[in-house]
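Lecture 7 notes: from sequence to structure.

We start with a single chain of 392 residues. Read the sequence below before looking at the structure.
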Amino acid sequence: MQLISKPLGRYPKPTSNYLPGNLVCFSHLRWDFVFQRPQHLLTRLAKIRNVFYVEEPVISDTEIPYYAYTSRGTQLTVVTPQLPKGLSITASLKIQKRLFDEFMTGHVVNDYGFWYYTPMALEFSRGYRPEITVFDCMDELSAFKFAPESIKTLEKELLQTADVVFTGGYSLFEAKKNQHNNIHAFPSSIDKPHFLKARELKNAKANKAARLGFYGVIDERFDIELIRNIAELRPDWDIILVGPVVKIDPATLPVNKNIKYLGSRTYAKLPELIADWDIALIPFLLNESTRFISPTKTPEYLAAGLPVISTAIEDVINPYGKYGLVSIGNNAKDFLSLAEQELQRDDRKEWLQKVDFFLAHNSWDETCEGMMAVMNNMIKSTQIVYNTIAHS
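Now the structure, written as tokens:
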């Protein structure tokens, strides 16, 4: 199969920028939790526009609810609702609505767009008329553990409201393409210069033990038994797990002398951390919560020069597995057999050239430019329609 590398050529750079001066983003992810898709895109958009990143509420000892504002750059502000304990759902939403209305009155009177990662924010942001409404659908949130029952209904409403819909992968695009007439797939990208540092930092190891690593959120999607079995079958290999443990009981995680839990690490430290790994893992379960995921770590691992072994996640198989860039395994024995092959690979230089060719046009810069082009075209076409009606 011929390897291809192509830019987002179907989204040319706009000659004019029609984006509103202020973008208000609603997210289910904390800005300082794990640096991923929202942070990559919005830090770039904040170079040309004011960005307000509205998080989900924090329940605290405060008696008076308020918005906490934290600067993350000249034009990027994280907005975190602080709510008192003991509120009912109805009371909480009422307060969030009041706080948001006060925020809009005080900060974003006009010239604004809405950017949603979570449909749940519709419950307090309805009724406004932004110049553009974007739904960047990075996951099938309704399939996640502890997802609110109302999220499916609210997503349908958001799909009817949004001017533009982006998806975080091709499988998610295929699942939703008939639900909107302006939907575009923008899969996970990479900050290549950042992860190329891992290649520069890589040193010859003093010991012979292979090091298999994973970084990311360790949650209900993580295949605990797969890791347990790999560790037991190869006790002379080290397994490094980096990231916060959420939504699952840490006591259920496998414990073995060759499994190292390092906890959370900053995005800036990742290249240095993974430079000592021999192989990177994507050990996700195959279930409803992983059916449409497009792991950002896949191209990041590859950019770092690491061989990757993954379970059969659709957006990893296509395109990475299809082009022989990532190995796909179904169980611990598969993973170990594939790892042995990678450790004995004698064509590493040619493999890296293949990886680099494939990733040549994969970058968050190009992804952000492509999204901006779609948004600009939408706003421009709407303005043309309005002007035509006004002068008819």
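The first strand starts at residue 22 and ends at 26. Keep this in mind for problem set 3.
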